[in-house]
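2024-03-11 09:14:02 INFO receiving multi-entity request
2024-03-11 09:14:02 INFO entity count = two
2024-03-11 09:14:03 INFO echoing inputs for audit
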Amino acid sequence: MEKFSLGSENLDLRIRIAELEKELADYRSGAAKNSNANGHATHVLDGEDDDDDDDEQNGLNPQDQDDKAVKLDLDEFRRYGRQMIMTEVGLDGQLQLKRSKVLLIGAGGLGCPAAAYLAGAGIGTIGIVDHDLVEPSNLHRQIMHTVEKVGQPKVKSIISSLKRINPNPKYIAHNYALTPENSIETLEKYDLVLDCTDSPQTRYMISDACVLLGKPLVSASALRSDGQLVVLNNPPGEGPCYRCVFPKPPPPESVLSCGEGGVLGPVVGAMGVLMSTEALKVLLSRADKKKRRKPAHLSPDIRPADAKDTPKREESPEQKKFYMTIYSAFSDTPFRTIRMFGKRKTCQACSPVATITKESMKNGSLDYVAFCGGKGSGKYPPLTKDEVINVEEYNKLRENKEGGLLVDVRDDVQFGMCALENSINVPITTILTLPIAPDKDGIDGGERTPVPIPSWLPRDTSTPIYFICRLGNDSRIAVQRLKKSGLVKGNVIKDIKGGLWEWSRKVDKTFPLY
Amino acid sequence: MAATFTVLYFASAHTYTGKSEDAVPGPMAVSKLFPYLEEKYPGFRKKVLSSCALSVNLEYVDLTEDADKEIQNGDEVGIIPPVSSG
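2024-03-11 09:21:47 INFO inference complete, emitting structure
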């Protein structure tokens, strides 16, 4: 038995050796032919790559930018052949990709698939900005991060995955958060930027920096089952910027992160993949297409003999059009493409009356957080000490059967996933529809029609009311909103601080964290 | 043709209204649309519409520049809030 397996292993190896020898012979003859024909082939391997991830902070040489002497080696012909034989790519297109430097901001749900395809396509230099660490809740959609990378910096994790797809590109890790102060410096070494971030303020900031630096920007986003994709400032100075499309930021209380609002993995994945396509389109449009021949049937030299002469039409340069693609995964017609008008005449960033400058970005005088209404500040009301209880204290009350009325304000889907025993579900959206009591010194002292009291509220004043939610934010809003309604008089109303997340960490470790 | 045009609600507009679309009686000037929707869905304007892009028949429409543009019955209007997550 052992002899037999050794024998078959030996045979496998012989076959493999024969294959490799044939490949090597093919390489040699192919190389000779290629170098005679067009001089593109070279045996020189890129000596640039160190395998050490920590070594990648070294930045870019400005000379790289103009390196027209980029060539493809034989491995690269093989690796990129399937895309190179496309009319849209060709050798000149592939060389253009190799010459290009692309920056992805964000190594999350959008950045992972976008980077995977750009690395695969043979972009010469790929930079990635992110300051986060890989978390288990990322893994359902951030496909470059894997179980064993949990806890690692995302940039390190994504680059090690990208190297396994394609070791050829130069990968540059920017393991920090992009700020107005460092954005110009970070972006200026690249040819093209992909906005794979997750907040309105970074979207405006990146767009402004791209306008100031004359870089095209591929911008996409996704939440729940919706996605948006738009190529901005392309060509630089002509196409609209993010401010042209959305001049007013969304009100901060309406902005949800994927953690708050949820997101379907393939939806954000699809948007990331589409970003990589748009990025390739922008880069390939810069390739030297003069050498291209038209297909024979369109070539004026080869025409059927009986073809009539048509008057020559001057090919007018095409009017550049701008589009935004909207994806609604659960809609019967999931994709829609909206035609945009060009730049906004009054745009603060890209119009002739623009006020945003490199200096105002670099010195930090532009406050994007304030422009976007300061998410975090003012979103959740401050509560007094008497309005808050921590999870341990509340647990003690429960054990003594003094838990009162426990109101879980998450939506019904989350309540259905897991909930504390004896809690009732009144979603925050319902609580926000409670009436607001008029001021005590109302102008009219007249009779008011009494507002019906919702059935879930206790009718006595002795039952305390405790609000809980996932993380302890909505429950704070609920406390304040119920007080404002004037519907309960005298009852203790408290927020359970830190919500179910804290409950799971401090009281009951078997309660699911999500 | 029905005497209405269709309003499509994307992203947070869909969440706010709980619907993917509405049939709205037309014709109607662009400038009248948001007040109309605010009446139908109180709070919609401040919380969602204020930052939305608007499209009519897949063309971006600017609320100030195209304020007088008439939305015709049979048109398709898109309410497009900025999505910023990713």
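2024-03-11 09:21:48 INFO post-check: Chain A touches chain B through 46 residues (CB under 8 Å).
2024-03-11 09:21:48 INFO post-check: Residues 33-58, 62-66, 442-446 of chain A have pLDDT under 50 and may be disordered.
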